[in-house]
Design brief:
single chain, 8 helices, 14% strand, 5 strands, Nucleotidyltransferase, domain 5, 211 residues, alpha/beta
């Protein structure tokens, strides 16, 4: 279960502002990639902290219950990169861009950033206010990263639900843009939408068929 142990190594217990950052949406065929940054107050404690976990291990109901609690008690910000940016930059660079935007959205810059994964946005291409550390499987170890993942996931799922209303054939309300069987079948039948990532192989193949 995630704790504040990693945050404490960077001074969180002494009131240092430590930001946890995570992203969702690198794998889908449609929709933006979304990142969130979360800063917990120093010495924060609440009964619901024990319920925070890797967002992939939580149910949708659990995530949607936790997200407003995190937003109420923490400082947070969302950043995203559009489908056009994903196609132009590639998904990794677009993910870094979304992270940069999330961090820049915080009211006060952190003194250290913890980022889920094994890469941090490379400088000077991406401007960060302080040093960042990559934490492999960070959402299983860091409460700040896990909270950021929950915020990002809930935000992106809501966005894909909205897009589903305009493009119901693709099943985005349930598959969030990932290449499910229903999504692939709709892509084959109806072709790509403006929200599909043209640089991703299944979408590129569908485009060639409609050209």
């Amino acid at each position: 279960m995630p704790t504040f142990d990693i945050e404490n190594t960077y001074g969180f217990a002494s009131d240092a502002r430590i930001a946890g950052v995570d992203e969702v949406g690198r794998g889908p065929l449609a929709g933006p990639v979304v990142a969130a940054a979360v800063v917990f107050p120093a010495n924060f404690a609440a009964p619901w902290l024990d319920k925070i976990n890797d967002s992939k291990k939580l149910t949708e109901k659990q995530r949607t219950a936790l997200a407003p609690l995190i937003c109420e008690h923490c400082e947070w910000a969302i950043g995203d990169a559009t489908v056009d940016e994903i196609d132009r930059l590639n998904i990794l660079q677009a993910t870094f861009l979304a992270m940069q935007r999330a961090i820049a959205g915080l009211r006060v810059p952190p003194v250290h950033i913890l980022i889920d994964g094994n890469h941090v946005p490379p400088q000077p291409r991406y401007t960060l206010p302080c040093k960042a550390t990559a934490v492999i499987k960070g959402d299983s170890h860091s409460l700040s990263i896990a909270a950021a993942a929950i915020i990002a996931k809930v935000h992106r799922d809501a966005l894909m639900q909205e897009l589903h209303e305009d493009y119901p054939h693709y099943g985005w309300a349930s598959n969030a843009g990932y290449g499910s069987a229903a999504h692939m079948a709709a892509l084959e039948r109806y072709g790509p939408t403006p929200h599909h990532r043209q640089s991703f192989a299944p979408v590129a193949a569908a485009l060639r068929k409609t050209a």
